[in-house]
Amino acid sequence: MENCIFCKIVNREIPSNLVLENEDFMAFHDLNPKAPVHILAIPKKHYESFQDAPAVEMSGLTAFIQEVAKKVGVDKSGYRVISNIGENGGQEVKHLHIHILGGAKLKWGHFSDSDPKNNL
Ligand code: 5GP
Ligand code: ZN
């Protein structure tokens, strides 16, 4: 999709630090890592977010992420997958991507300023 930064990475119009690629998916290092391992896994096809992706695409992406985790050696030590979706999810790049975070014990903080108990 025009003007989409991740589509430009897929099309090699801008460079990325590639970790793994196959016909359908690509994984590259996040430009601004938030953990020792911080990789983004994306489908080559443009979907705005997780909310727009067909389940079959996510099935392939799951297997691909498992391969990435093995390749960078976090499959045994553990890691976290996150997809930010839309406004409240804090999504900045509007091309579906899964963050793969690891390489150290990750923290589990509070996610918003509102009191979670208000939703019980
Ligand atoms: P979001 O907030 O949309 O879930 O995450 C977007 C992520 O993409 C951020 O972690 C940001 O550092 C990363 N990012 C943004 N632009 C680029 C880029 O051009 N190359 C790479 N490798 N990462 C990017
Ligand atoms: Zn795109």
Task: Describe what you observe in this structure.
The model has no long low-confidence stretch (mean pLDDT 96). With 120 residues, this protein is α+β, with helices and mostly antiparallel strands. It has one domain: HIT family, subunit A. Helices cover 22% and strands 21% of the residues. It is globular, with a radius of gyration of 15 Å. The site of zinc ion has 6 residues, from α1.
Feature tags:
120 residues; binds zinc ion; 22% helix; 5-stranded antiparallel sheet; 3 helices; HIT family, subunit A; alpha+beta; globular; single chain; binds guanosine-5'-monophosphate
Reconstruct the topology from this structure.
Elements: H1 5-10, E1 18-21, E2 25-29, E3 37-43, H2 55-71, E4 79-82, H3 86-89, E5 98-102
Antiparallel strand pairs: 1-2, 2-3, 3-5, 4-5
The structure holds guanosine-5'-monophosphate and zinc ion.
Quick recap:
The protein contains 3 helices and 5 strands; from the N terminus they run αβββαβαβ. It is of the alpha+beta class.
- Give me the CATH architecture, please: 2-Layer Sandwich
User: Structural class of the helix and strand makeup?
Assistant: alpha+beta
Strand order, main sheet: write it out: 1-2-3-5-4
Percent of residues in helices = 10-25%
State the total count of DSSP E strands.
5
Provide the CATH top-level class. Answer: Alpha Beta
What is the string of SSEs from the N terminus onward? HEEEHEHE
